[in-house]
Amino acid sequence: MKFTLSPELEAFRQDVRRFVADNLSPATRAKVDEGRRLVKADYVDWYRILHAKGWITPGWPVEHGGTDWSPLERYIFEEETALGGAPPVTGGINMIGPVLIAFGTPEQKAAYLPAMRRGDLWWAQGFSEPGSGSDLASLSTKAVLEGDHYVVNGTKIWQTQAAYADMMFALVRTRFEGKPQEGITLLLLDMKSPGLSIQPIRTIDGGQELYQCFFDNVRVPIENRVGADSKGWTYAKYLLGFERHGIAGIGHAKRQMVRIKRIAAAEQDRGTRLIDQPRWGERIALLEIELMALECLSLRLIQESEMMGAGKGPGVEASILKIRGTELRQEMFELLTDLTGPYVIPFDEEVMRSGWGNAAPVGPAHAATIASNYLDSRKISIYGGANEIQRNVLAKSILGL
Amino acid sequence: MDFILNEEQMLLRDMAARFAADARARQEKTPEEPGRRWSRFAELGLLGLTLGEAHGGLGGGGVETMIVAEEMGRQLLTEPFVPAVAMVSPLIGELGSKDHHEQILPRLAAGEVLVVPAFLEPEARYDLAQVATIARADGDQVRITGRKAVVLNAPQADLLLVSTRSAGATGAMEGISLYLVPCQAPGVSLRAITTLDGRPAAEVNFDAVAVAATSRLGSAGTALPAIERAVDRGIAALAGEAVGAMAALLDLTAEYLRTRKQFGAPIGKFQALQHKLVDMRVALELARSVAAAAAMAVDIPDAELRRRFISAAKVQVTRSGRLIGQAAIQLHGAMGMTEEYGAGRYLKRLVVIGALYGDFAHHLERFAATAEPAGLPN
Ligand SMILES: Cc1cc2nc3c(=O)[nH]c(=O)nc-3n(C[C@H](O)[C@H](O)[C@H](O)COP(=O)(O)OP(=O)(O)OC[C@H]3O[C@@H](n4cnc5c(N)ncnc54)[C@H](O)[C@@H]3O)c2cc1C
Predict the structure, then answer these.
(1) How confident is the model over A172-230, as pLDDT tens digits?
(2) Average pLDDT over residues B120-149
(3) What CATH fold (topology level) applies to the domain A250-399?
(4) CA A243/CA A239 separation, integer angstroms
(5) Architecture of domain B115-221
(6) Structure confidence at residue B61 (pLDDT)
(7) What one-character DSSP code corresponds to residue A217?
(8) What is the pLDDT of residues A8-47, one digit of tens each?
């Protein structure tokens, strides 16, 4: 054990930090800083910058554009990009990308992987259905093979940013007998397919990022199947288990901590800054200690699993990181809400999108996004395997059941 | 303390419950014009709830106010019952002149004028003594200059009840006077805002607004204790509203756990969720009980004891509200995140109530600063 990371890793951290500072669009950074809504261009512009640097798909194999970084380097990269205010890399890159690399045909790889790296291809994740959330294997959207096409009927729900998407990777049911897990197939659907329609769902934070997707005799060419028919569950499990290094969201949490301190220094009560008042100072310190403990745990788990074999990410321990990482960030948004006091009450969706512009803010400028951000933060313990499910997984593993 | 409602209070509760449920149903069918909705409150006598019988009111106190507020919270009604009926009416009754009583109170009870309080200021956070809005004598008039923050329902109001400073430094307890200021008076400007829970509100600016000296409520420079009492009445009512919202949210969540199926069973079969639901219920029962105690405490003469119970209720209700609101969303899964489903609307109401008239931290401090009641064994 040594208190400091190696000089090489420290230098790498500084490299990434400088790169983000020098290249991320100030407008996007300001949105992230202020908790305003990002639009597709904020993401894609950043992906193109990462692509030009060769850093868009660190987790992919080198021959497909990966960086060959160690798990620790990847962890540092994720932390530093989040800490620097960069949008997260999403849109399927870390989900369907690795699956196509492992199980896709050469044609699928050629058709999709380079376009994804360039920021030209955005995927929606078509897993959940109205009747199948935590119990994903019960999904019932049906695909029937007719000649060289699957014909898909049914509905998916909660697709994030489906309106941004060019393609969707979807789990569909191709067999109804046997164990539910055994009749599921992974298909790649063009979002412009006839019969595929989407409908936005407004969320409690005022946003509109989620969609329900409807399939009415949507024809999907058989060459858009990933791997074998009815083996989709295996690929889905591979996909969901893939990107776990950053699952605790340390970079994001650290950035919120910066925001907390900035706001606690700006807000005053009877002439004293909140940050200087013990009751607020202690609450901030407690969260900071929790964050420190979680960061130490993340680093430790990565190093231990790296030692034990094959550069894999953490196993069931990832559930610990998911639970604590999400609940800690939620506590941070609760604190932000409390720090903001009465000015958490006004709400203006326009400010969430465009900021105050030339108008004088109502109350302190930082206040306008806090309530929406707080409400939005409630989702992180629901998606990506709800925290109850994570606790079930951990309980089984502790008890050896 | 006697927690049992008397017969009249039970009747009031049943009436308010029917009224609020009906108002919600009506609202969902065809949204009504706000003035029409408000006059329905008047028709039932609810706007005179806190006025003495001499002024055409029902003579109700903290408990009656809480009973009605709870039903409003349960149905998420957004009418200005708390600012107008819980806070302003008793305050005018207490401090107003005979003229005020005769000219304003009957019209308040009839729903013909709406008066809302404008006490807190942009720099004040929750400190009622941080009054930088100045009232300066000008012949037989007074000129008011300053700003008030997040004034609920100001865009609908006819008059604002404004705390002003006529002497002393910002923050001093002495030197605060209350004035009734017509919203239409020259120099009053509103920056309209919408609250997180969908109510109209405004930042209000007063630029040398001239009002008659007779529009002062009570004697000059001594209004702070009455303002504090009015805010305490407001907090007790808001606590009732929060309890109603929490109870409705708990019902909604329990119903969802009974009907939502995953893994071949209603998710309410999973013990992890059962225990969460139970924690929500415990939090509700604590909040309900302290809120009731606070409603009773509103009307006692001992200000120190009153403060203690009001602050305790605000702290407990804020904590319970957060626990119940957040757990409700979590137990609904992604459905809980949707605006349409409606669980989030309760959470938003609870967030707003938590941030009104002193948050958790403010009341924790205020509670800690009150003396313990005498008579405890050493
Ligand atoms: C913001 C957001 C974005 C999303 N994006 C996508 C997307 O892009 N694509 C996609 O396919 N899906 C997406 N989802 C859906 C997400 O995967 C599901 O919400 C999640 O799987 C939970 O399912 P559910 O919402 O149906 O909740 P349910 O499964 O109905 O669960 C309801 C509650 O019951 C609990 N519960 C369920 N089973 C058990 C059990 N056995 N033991 C204890 N507790 C249990 C849950 O933890 C939860 O608290 C998104 C969701 C959100 C909120």
Answers:
(1) 999 999 999 999 999 999 999 999 999 999 999 999 999 999 999 999 999 999 999 99
(2) 97
(3) Butyryl-CoA Dehydrogenase, subunit A; domain 3 (1.20.140)
(4) 8
(5) Beta Barrel (2.40)
(6) 95
(7) E
(8) 999 999 999 999 999 999 999 999 999 999 999 999 999 9
pLDDT-derived band at A310 (thresholds 50, 70, 90) equals: low
Name residues contacting ligand 1 (CB within 6 A): A 125-128, 133-134, 158-160, 210, 379, 382-383, 386, 388-389, 392; B 260, 262-263, 267, 270, 272-273, 330-331, 333-334, 337
Compute, in degrees rounded to 10, the torsion defined by CA atoms B210, B211, B213, B219: -110
Residue A280 is predicted with a pLDDT of 96
Q: Does B54 touch chain A (CB under 8 A)?
A: no
Contacts of B241 (CB under 8 A, 6+ apart): B69, B70, B72, B73, B82, B349, B353
Tell whether B146 lies on the interface with A, counting CB pairs under 8 A: no
ipTM for this model = 0.96
- With an 8 Å Cβ cutoff, is B127 touching chain A? yes
Over B217-281, what HEC string results? ECCCCECHHHHHHHHHHHHHHHHHHHHHHHHHHHHHHHHHHHHCEECCEEHHHCHHHHHHHHHHH
Q: Is the pLDDT of residue A314 over 70?
A: no
* Residue B181: closest CA among B201, B208, B150: B208
- Do A168 and A125 touch, CB atoms closer than 8 A? yes
Spatial CA neighbour of A117 closest among A28, A19, A50, A189: A50
- Average pLDDT on A56-81 reads 94
Task: Please tell me the predicted confidence (pLDDT) of residue B143.
Answer: 98
Among B223, B219, B221, B210, residue whose Cα is nearest residue B140: B210
Q: Which residue of B has its CA nearest to A134?
A: B262
Q: How confident is the model at residue B147 (pLDDT cuts 50, 70, 90)?
A: very high
Burial tier of A208 (Cβ tally within 10 Å: 0-12, 13-18, 19+): middle
Per-residue pLDDT, A203: 98
Return the closest-CA partner of residue A372 out of A386, A354, A351, A358: A351
Separation CA B196–CA A204 (nearest Å): 10
Q: Considering only the top CATH level, what class is A122-236? A: mainly beta
A138, A132 Cβ separation under 8 angstroms: yes
Of B122, B262, B344, the CB nearest to A363: B122
pLDDT in tens, B21-58: 999 999 888 878 878 889 999 999 999 999 988 888 89
Domain ranges of chain B: 7-110, 115-221, 225-369
Strand-strand pairing, B115-118 and B159-165: parallel
Alpha helices by DSSP H, B50-209: 62-74, 81, 89-95, 98-109
Tell me the fold of B225-369: Butyryl-CoA Dehydrogenase, subunit A; domain 3 (1.20.140)
Rounded Cα distance, B360 and A28, in Å: 34
Q: Which CATH class is domain B7-110?
A: mainly alpha
Q: How many helices (H) and strands (E) does chain B have?
A: 11, 10
How far apart are alpha carbons B204 and B152 in whole angstroms? 10
Mutational test site, ligand 1, from A383, A389, A391, max ligand atoms within 8 Å of CB: A383
Cβ-defined contact of B352 to A345 (cutoff 8 Å): yes
**Which residues lie across from B135 on neighbouring strands?**
B144
Q: Domain locations in chain A?
A: 7-94, 122-236, 250-399
CB-defined contacts A:B, below 8 A: 138
Tokens in use for A273?
Answer: 């800054």
Length of chain B: 378
Q: Is A398 a residue whose pLDDT tops 60? A: yes
* Residue among B154, B95, B158, B156 nearest B119 (CA): B154
Distance, CA of A356 to CA of A388 (rounded, Å):
39
Helix axes B34-43, B7-29, angle to 10 degrees: 160
- Check: CB of residue A238 under 8 Å from CB of residue A312: no
